[in-house]
Amino acid sequence: MKRYQMMIGASWRDAASGAWIQTPDPFSGQVWAEVPRGNAEDAGLAVTAAHQAFHSPEWASLTATQRGALLRKLGDLVERDADRLAQVEHRSNGKNITEVSGQAKNVAQWFYYYAGLADKIQGAVVPINKPGVFNYVRYEPLGVVVAITPWNSPLALTAWKMAPALACGNTIVIKPSEFTSPPLLELAALALEAGFPAGVVNVVTGYGNEIGEALINHPLTAKIAFTGGEAGGRLVAEAAARGFKKVTLELGGKSANIVFADAEIDQAVRGAVAGIFGAAGQTCMAGSRLLLERSIHDVFVRRLVELVGSARIGNPSDPQTQIGPIATRPQFEKILRYIEIAKSEGATCVLGGYPLSGAEYGQGQFIAPTIFTGVHNRMRIAQEEVFGPVLAVIPFDTVDEALQMANDTQYGLAAAVWTQDLHKAIHCSERLEAGTVWVNNYRATSFTTPFGGYKHSGIGREGGLDGVHEYLQAKSVWITTRPDRPNAFVLG
Ligand code: NAD
């Protein structure tokens, strides 16, 4: 068993309480790591270290180009250790090794992208409407950023925050999910090896209500970047409001995958499967509502059931495995509850609907891929995030009806449209209330383009140029150019 420590400043330390949290392997059920159970005292130390680092000459006097070089070095180290990092994440959340390996390599790309962007964030000279004055805008970092991340993609979702935050000159305190802290503690060691000055990157571990709340409420925290569920997001937003802190929230989704009768059906079937059963449905962008034009409903469902029925389910360490376990026990139980809710609401279960047990499923928390038909959009199974391998299929007759149902949700993270009609594709992508719309594909993401939610799916964007502006504040500088008439413009 491996015992990890937290990183505060450049020091590795146990929690002030001396307590530990165990990390079980979701497939074998065996505890393989322990991380410190931090509390408010550790939170205070970490935010203070990050605040001191923010003002330290070692960090504050670096040029943007030098910050970019550090991020590039970190990207190199992540790439060098991608397989090892992937193994650590995979043991923590049980995600298929093939998917995690791909994601770990992609994490390096996030550091490279924002390394390149660091010295390309430019201010502006403003054609100000006053005589005798020169005005320019410069963009400055915010200070201490607290990044709080969930268990489903800990490395990636941390890099989405850490790379732009550091590129802009902030310092950061990362609080990973209590279920998946080891990969972020490994990343902390790489940040140290890359040469980031002490206190610029800190990683503390523990439960949300113990250390998380202390971090978001700390008076020296300038910004909170949170990915997680709605309840946590609301607490973060409230703390941010109380302290007038900046906030980015990446929350849940109930994304609609709309398939029109004129779609390329084979591709759409594969897209629907990847959309909801990839990562066993444990992704915020899961296409958990499948809206099918009525004329293709029956044939589409038949092909869906055939394809999903042949999926290889089992040990996530086997590269052939397509669907792995559920990452945590509470999540496993929540998914089973939703399956019962769907049945009690009158939806028809045409595939799965039960937990899987047997030698090939380890001690695991496996749920058979589950498809419900006969779903009405106002049912709870169509409105609430399950975060598991459970698909709700809803028929529609017209484009307007499909769009009305797709938008009839509190969420707005993503949506997809499958059609060969360009006009329909553009019309739908304009009317869908979602931060990401895919046309004839699903689950594509990139560091070059913004990702985030409409409505209850979040506030702000991660990725691309939009991503950096979440970590900057504008300063307007006024310089008198007529010293003989210093205040002339005030009246002018
Ligand atoms: P969660 O909200 O339970 O936990 C997320 C993080 O918040 C964890 O680190 C947790 O310790 C912390 N936290 C919990 N309560 C807190 C509190 N009171 N104060 C401060 N921190 C607190 O979410 P989860 O179960 O780990 O992840 C699943 C959720 O994340 C789903 O709802 C999913 O949709 C969402 N998610 C969103 C995105 C996105 O980009 N939009 C990506 C992945 C996951």
What can you see in these coordinates?
Strands 15-18-19-14-13-20-21 form a seven-stranded mixed sheet, sandwiched between helices. Helix content is 41%, strand content 21%. The chain is built from 17 helices and 23 strands. Helix 15 links the parallel strand 20 (414-418) and strand 21 (436-439). The protein folds into two domains: 2-251 and 457-476, Aldehyde Dehydrogenase, Chain A, domain 1 (3-Layer(aba) Sandwich), CATH 3.40.605.10; 256-439, Aldehyde Dehydrogenase, Chain A, domain 2. It is an alpha/beta fold and 492 residues long. The protein binds nicotinamide-adenine-dinucleotide (NAD). Nicotinamide-adenine-dinucleotide binds next to helix 8 and helix 9.
Terminal CA distance reads 72 Å
Task: Bin the helical content.
Answer: 40-55%
Q: Average pLDDT, to the nearest integer?
A: 96
Number of strands: 23
Q: Can you tell me the number of structural domains?
A: 2
Number of helices: 17
Strand content range: 15-25%
Which architecture of the largest domain per CATH? 3-Layer(aba) Sandwich
Highest CATH level, the class of the largest domain: Alpha Beta
Query: Uncertain segments of ≥5 residues (pLDDT<50)?
Result: none
- Main beta sheet: 7 strands, mixed
Task: List all distinct small molecules, including ions and cofactors, that are bound in this structure.
Answer: nicotinamide-adenine-dinucleotide
What is this entry, summarized?
The chain is built from 17 helices and 23 strands.
